[in-house]
Amino acid sequence: MAFATPARQWLWQLELRDDATVADALAEARACNAKSGKEQCTELTSSSLTCGCDVPVNPDNTEAVAELNRLRKAGASCSMVCPAIACIPPEGAECAADDASPGMCRSVGAILQ
Predict the structure, then answer these.
(1) Domain that holds residue 58
(2) What is the pLDDT averaged over residues 101-107?
(3) Exposed, middle or buried, 19 (CB in 10 Å: 0-12/13-18/19+)?
(4) Contact assessment for residue 53 and residue 44, using Cβ atoms and an 8 Å cutoff
(5) Parallel, antiparallel, or unpaired for β 9-11 and 2-4?
(6) Which partner for 57 in 29, 77, 93, 98 could form a disulfide, CB atoms 3.0-4.6 Å apart?
């Protein structure tokens, strides 16, 4: 993951285990830094392998986003009946910090996170 200002640049690695699950990759893809002042949560991806609503992710987390895509391709041959739920597209996204992390991308104006 990378973050830069005109005066300074920060880089840190997000590493996924070899046995990473979709949930692990999604959590890493949603990671952000709420104190950065940079818009980070600018892409959407499905919240699960086959079914799910779109959730915001940080495209700077290239390894995690690539792992999500790899896992989806690997699971493409799985057939699953998805429940008929209404996914309301988020109106936007923000990076919000909590007690457990410096930030996670979350939807703004959507019912489902």
Answers:
(1) 19-76+87-108
(2) 90
(3) exposed
(4) no
(5) antiparallel
(6) 29
